[in-house]
Each structure stands twice: as C-alpha cells, then as structure tokens.
Automatic annotation (TrEMBL):
The lineage of its organism: Bacteria, candidate division WS2. Belongs to the class-I aminoacyl-tRNA synthetase family. This is Tryptophan--tRNA ligase. It comes from the Bacteria. One of its GO terms (cellular component) is cytosol. It comes from candidate division WS2 bacterium ADurb.Bin280.
Length: 329
C-alpha cells in the first residue's frame, strides 16, 4: 500500500503554482493509499516570521488544504511542530549528513542569495528536517513540484546510508512529480518560478484572489513575441507555454486541444478564457475557505486529531532509529 507524505509552508499566500504542482495531486492521491499532509511551520521559521501572522497562516493553510479537496476523513492533516519527533529525528539525521551535500542544494544557494554568512543555520539545514518529515512515517511516495526534487534525492541518500550502516531502518521514498505542472512560472517573468515570496503580487495568483484580481493579473501577464497560441516545450515561447500549462492544469484539458480552440485567435481572447477558467476552479475553493475559517475551533480539532493519530508511527520509527544508533539507556 502507498504511504504518501507531503508538506507546505504556512508562509505568505498559497498560489496556483502550489495548487497545480502539489495540492491538486494531494487530493487525487488521498484515494490511492494512506496520505499524511503536513503544515511545515518549523520550516517556515528558517526565515524571519511575525509570530501572530505565522499562527494565523497555519490555520489558513489548513483551511485551504480542506477547501482544495483534502478530506480529513481520508487523509491525516497536522502541524509539524505539534510532533516533536520531527525535530528529534532531524538532529539524528544531521549527524549522518555531510556539509558538502547541503552546500550543493540549489534552493539553499537561491534563498541565501550568495550571502551565506547572513542566513540562519536553519535555512542551511532545511533539507534534513524535510528528510525527517518524510522518513518518520516510512513514506513510499512524496508528491511535490520540481523545485523539491533535489530535497527528495538527499532524503533518499540519507535513508540509504543509514539502512546500509544499520540494516533496514527507513523506507526509501520516491517523488511524484506531475511534469506538465511541476514548475509553474511567474506571470511577470516566465524565466522565474512562481513564488510566494515574490514582492510583486501580480507575479502570482493566490488561491484567495478575487475574480477581479485574477482577471487583472492575467491581463497583465507577460506574453511572447508573435500572436500564436501555441506552446513550445523547447523553450522559445516560455510565457504562452506557461499560460497554456495553467489552463490545462485548471481544466484538465490537454494542451493541443486548447491550442486548437484558439487557432487563429489572439491573446486577448485566450487570456479572457484563461481568467474565467481559473475563476471557475478557484471560486468554490475560495467560498469553502471562508466557511472553514469561520469555525477555527473545528480546524484546531482536525489538526489535533491528525497529530494524535500519527503519533504511534512517528514514535515507532524514532525509537527504532535511536535503538540502532545506540542512543539512550
Ligand atoms: P513550499 O511550501 O515552498 O511549496 C509547497 C509545494 O508547492 C510546490 N511548488 C510549486 N509547484 C509548481 N510550480 C511552482 N511555481 C511551485 N512553487 C511551489 C512545491 O514543490 C511543494 O511541493 N520544503 C517544502 C515543504 C516540505 C515538504 C516536506 C514537502 C517540508 N517537508 C516533506 C514534501 C515532503 C516547501 O518549502 O514547499
């Protein structure tokens, strides 16, 4: 049976890149095995956070998971810091991870912006905490976007290293990356990944944007030279390719089918249809989100129950590792 684990940071806003690259797949996968979905607040504090806002965002993120279709009666939802085993296993895994391996992580290089002396040790160590998240539950599959692929690879390396030194300890997980939506690009610059931390709010569409905001952002989205609505997997038309991928991800239609519909038509018509397709998909999510946020007590309860439900598995793995490594009395 598949054991699925994935996580998302409760920072800034959740955008359609997170939705198409990860969340939408989480919903599909909850029927294919045991699914555990985590709000990774410990990862969030690797960069400065306002405590009040962070707390609020944790609940908002839980509400968005459910609004997007994650069903708490099928999948387990919980907050990372509510299970101390994550930090504890992370420490142990640190002692089996090389500095050189972590220095090679492209996300660390990007996020530190070349100024490694002025970022936290937590940011450097981020992939090891992620490995602990995954390995703690003997996960078989991790649905993520392309940007997390390298972190799954290091998780596999750490698991294999410990397995070969101490005998079978961890399941070695596989990533699940849906190629067509694995890397949704920024609307204002298709050479950059759509990112929560972008200072330009027009570069992304948040799941909670209003229909008018969505229309405005799509209208403003960068386009390529020429007027054809045609994707180029080889990269000459990055902007229209990205918009077509978003259209396809939102509607479930194949890209060639969308291209056929807009043959001989201009960007204006295509962009209008795209904005409406996004609105159609996001409006019910937005509505459900507002309903869920009106009952914070219920959200608290879902997260607390989730954490309690997975406690035995987390403790079992942690005890097994401690025993193998020779910790305790
Ligand atoms: P985070 O919070 O940055 O992103 C959450 C998920 O969204 C995907 N994603 C994208 N997919 C397509 N296009 C984009 N532009 C885009 N931007 C983000 C990410 O790949 C991710 O799947 N380190 C993780 C959270 C994490 C985790 C884990 C994930 C912590 N522990 C264990 C899996 C398993 C992160 O920061 O994701």
């Amino acid at each position: 049976m598949k054991k699925i684990f994935s996580g998302i940071q409760p920072t800034n806003v959740i955008h359609i890149g997170n939705y198409l690259g990860a969340l939408k797949n989480w919903v599909a996968l909850q029927d294919e095995g045991e699914a555990i979905y985590c709000i990774v607040d410990l990862h969030a504090i690797t960069v400065p956070q306002d405590p009040k806002i962070l707390k609020e965002k944790i609940l908002e993120t839980a509400a968005l998971f459910i609004a997007c279709g994650v069903d708490p009666s099928k999948a387990t939802l919980f907050v990372q810091s509510s299970r101390p085993e994550h930090s504890e296993l992370s420490w142990i895994l640190n002692c089996f991870t090389g500095m050189g391996e972590l220095k090679r992580m492209t996300q660390f290089k990007d996020k530190s912006g070349g100024d490694q002396d002025n970022v936290t040790a937590g940011l450097f160590d981020y992939p090891v905490l992620m490995a602990a998240d995954i390995l703690l539950y003997q996960t078989t599959h991790v649905p993520v976007g392309e940007d997390q692929k390298q972190h799954i690879e290091i998780t596999r390396d750490i698991a294999q290293r410990i397995n070969s030194k101490y005998g079978e300890t961890f399941t070695v997980p596989e990533p699940i990356i849906k190629q067509s939506t694995a890397r949704i690009m920024a609307l204002d610059d298709p050479s950059k990944k759509m990112s929560k931390s972008s200072p330009n709010a027009s570069s992304f569409i948040a799941l909670t944007d209003t229909p008018d905001q969505i229309r405005e952002k799509i209208k403003k989205a960068t386009t390529d030279s020429g007027s054809e609505i045609k994707s180029s997997p080889t990269g000459e038309k990055p902007a229209i390719t990205n918009l077509l991928r978003i259209f396809s991800g939102m509607t479930g239609r194949e890209i060639p089918d969308i291209e056929r519909e807009f043959e001989g038509k201009g960007y204006g018509e295509f962009k209008n249809a795209l904005a409406e397709a996004i609105i159609e998909e996001l409006e019910p999510i937005h509505k459900k989100f507002e309903e869920l946020m009106a009952d914070k007590e219920a959200l608290h309860q879902i997260l607390t129950q989730g954490s309690q439900k997975i406690a035995p598995l987390a403790q079992e793995t942690l005890n097994k590792v401690k025993e193998k490594v020779g910790l305790g009395i």
